[in-house]
């Protein structure tokens, strides 16, 4: 804070930094009086008053402010539900399901809470059509078509809302600004946080992502909000993975699993039944493994097919598995395990359209290739966990104990070597 001298007109109260004989506003003469004020940030003069303090025992327990969502899979990622007055930033590629899951959340909250949906990109009729297809009852939800923050704030002041969805932050703007600029997005987010925290409105802000998969706009946007959520998945696959990269109210190492269907995103409560065949079956060229998506163990079926090549250069093809790692595993099998694949085409696939980047799944692929080559079936009640090294040894999978606990809970047999 600095002391500053200003001159104030006794007729119209306009302030100026230097004395003049005539007021530039009301044109009165000899009316400027010298005054001393404190100088705040950015040169604005304002008085600062104290605010009331509270003891920790007087603050309401945050656990009582949680709002349950429509599924345990979403609550798992959020940290047992939405926080009242929390700011949530939801990102993902176009068509991945951001608006769909938002409508499903409002459908669940419709009975007990009043919500406002701000449509900046779509018309209300388009949203109504989607809601009808998803069988969503949104009688207590108010919809507005607007990109102006001033109109949104006016609606929030006029009505008492519990929940707010902004779709999307990149098209919002002030009346005197352009949409999409970094400074505008930051200022809009700051304004929404100010209003939401003051009124206790739980807010979901939908954001676009860049071609690199990161949220568009200034990075400070992620620092301002309480929770940053991403919906990921292949456009050609029905499976969606929801994870939190930032969460002030819960964990950031869990993943929610969903399946996109005609009626919306349905939670997958038991992934073991979704990605694998029956445990009582035996298949040639298939083996089960446990892959870690963040810290969420998932049972996945790895498939392999070995067939005699008709050309001098055998083909290697992988869907959902790294091709370079496949070539390394084939070389290890030939050198250390006596599996001659020099005249065999090898095709690899991961069931369910998933992509594996976990080196702890190497052993399962080795087992599937050996099974296909020797035509020996593998029973699907066993899990193979291990990382293949260039020395031919099988190393323990990363975070093995975490996988082991989940596999024992599902009653699978665990193998860490090729038997």
Integer average pLDDT: 87
Q: What is the alpha-carbon Rg in Å?
A: 30 Å
CATH architectural designation of the largest domain: 3-Layer(aba) Sandwich
Kindly report the CATH topology of the largest domain: Rossmann fold
Shape designation: elongated
Report how far apart the termini are. 75 Å
The first-level CATH class name of the largest domain: Alpha Beta
Going by helix content, strand content and strand pairing, the class is: alpha/beta
Domain unit count: 3
Going by CATH, the homologous superfamily of the largest domain would be P-loop containing nucleotide triphosphate hydrolases
Cross-sheet strand order for the largest sheet: 8-7-9-10-6-11-12-13-14
Write a concise synopsis of the structure shown:
It is built from 10 helices and 24 strands. The protein has 419 residues and is an alpha/beta fold.
Describe this protein with a few key phrases:
9-stranded mixed beta sheet; alpha/beta; 419 residues; Ribosomal Protein S5, domain 2; Rossmann fold; 10 helices
Describe it:
With 419 residues, this protein is of the alpha/beta class. It folds into three domains: 2-43; 60-269, Rossmann fold; 273-415, 2-Layer Sandwich (Ribosomal Protein S5, domain 2), CATH 3.30.230. Helices cover 25% and strands 29% of the residues. It contains ten helices and 24 strands. The chain has helices spanning 72-78, 98-109, 124-133, 149-158, 182-199, 220-224, 271-274, 323-336, 362-374, 400-409, and strands at residues 2-9, 15-16, 32-39, 66-67, 82-83, 87-92, 115-119, 141-145, 163-167, 202-207, 227-232, 239-247, 255-261, 264-267, 282-283, 286-293, 296-308, 316-319, 344-350, 378-379, 382-384, 387-388, 394-395, 413-415. Strands 8-7-9-10-6-11-12-13-14 form a nine-stranded mixed sheet. Strands 16-17-19-18 form a four-stranded mixed sheet. The longest helix is centred in the middle third of the chain and has 18 residues, at 182-199. The protein starts with a strand and ends with a strand. Mean pLDDT is 87; it is low at 41-45.
């Amino acid at each position: 804070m600095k002391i500053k001298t200003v001159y104030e007109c006794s007729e119209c109260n306009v302030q100026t930094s230097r004395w003049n004989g005539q007021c530039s506003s009301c044109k009165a003469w000899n009316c400027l009086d010298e005054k001393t004020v404190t100088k705040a940030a950015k040169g604005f003069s304002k008085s600062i008053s104290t605010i009331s303090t509270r003891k920790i025992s007087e603050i309401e327990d945050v656990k009582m402010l949680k709002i349950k969502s429509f599924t345990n899979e979403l609550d798992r990622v959020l940290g047992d539900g939405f926080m009242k007055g929390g700011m949530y930033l939801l990102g993902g590629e176009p068509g991945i399901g951001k608006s769909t899951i938002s409508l499903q959340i409002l459908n669940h909250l419709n009975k007990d809470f009043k919500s406002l949906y701000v449509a900046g990109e779509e018309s209300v009729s388009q949203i109504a059509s989607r809601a009808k297809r998803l069988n969503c009852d949104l009688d207590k939800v108010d919809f507005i078509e607007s990109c102006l923050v001033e109109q949104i704030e006016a609606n929030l002041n006029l009505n008492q809302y519990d929940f707010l969805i902004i779709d999307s932050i990149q098209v919002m703007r002030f009346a005197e600004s352009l949409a999409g600029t970094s400074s505008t997005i930051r200022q809009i987010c700051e304004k929404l946080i100010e209003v939401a925290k003051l009124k206790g409105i739980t807010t979901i802000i939908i954001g676009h992502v860049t071609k690199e998969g990161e949220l568009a706009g200034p990075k400070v946007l992620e620092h301002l909000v309480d929770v940053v959520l991403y919906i990921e998945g292949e456009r050609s696959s029905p499976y969606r993975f929801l994870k939190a990269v930032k969460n002030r109210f819960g964990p950031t190492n869990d993943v929610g699993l969903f399946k996109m269907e005609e009626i919306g995103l349905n939670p997958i409560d038991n992934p073991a039944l979704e990605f694998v065949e029956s445990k009582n079956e035996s298949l040639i060229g298939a083996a089960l493994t446990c892959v870690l998506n963040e810290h969420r163990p998932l049972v996945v079926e790895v498939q392999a097919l070995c067939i005699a090549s008709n050309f001098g250069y055998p083909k290697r093809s992988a869907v959902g598995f790294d091709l370079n790692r496949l070539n390394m595993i084939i070389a290890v099998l030939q050198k250390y395990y006596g599996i001659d694949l020099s005249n065999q085409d090898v095709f690899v696939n991961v069931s369910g359209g998933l992509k594996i980047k976990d080196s702890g799944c190497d052993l399962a692929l080795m087992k599937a290739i050996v099974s296909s080559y020797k035509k020996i079936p593998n029973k699907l009640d066993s899990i193979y966990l291990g990382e293949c090294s260039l020395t031919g040894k099988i190393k323990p999978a990363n975070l093995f104990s975490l996988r082991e606990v989940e596999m024992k809970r599902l009653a699978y047999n665990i193998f860490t070597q090729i038997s």
